[in-house]
Design a protein that fits this description.
two-stranded antiparallel ribbon, about 80 residues, 2 helices, elongated, about 25% helix, two-stranded antiparallel sheet
Length: about 80
């Protein structure tokens, strides 16, 4: 699976690595992705999601049910 958050859609971005002498070379900034298991009580099963830490905070705030509902509306299979 690619380095993309399943909830927020965050993915690597490209920028410059800048040395002390101010030379610039290309580099990638990777998102802070975590593989996390949640117990989905409505379906009585565990689901595994690849999430950014920002998405984990969103799930803690809004609840797993609402986040899964939004993902299914987008067409993501869980």
């Amino acid at each position: 699976m690619a380095r993309v958050c399943q909830v927020t859609g965050r993915k690597p971005v490209v920028g410059h690595k800048v040395s002390f002498s101010n030379k610039k070379s290309k580099r990638r900034f990777l998102p802070n992705l975590q593989t996390k298991r949640f117990f989905f009580a409505e379906e009585d099963r565990w689901i595994t999601l690849k999430l950014s830490t920002d998405a984990i905070r969103t799930i803690n705030k809004n609840g797993l049910i609402s986040v899964v509902k939004e993902l299914r509306e987008k067409g993501v299979t869980i």
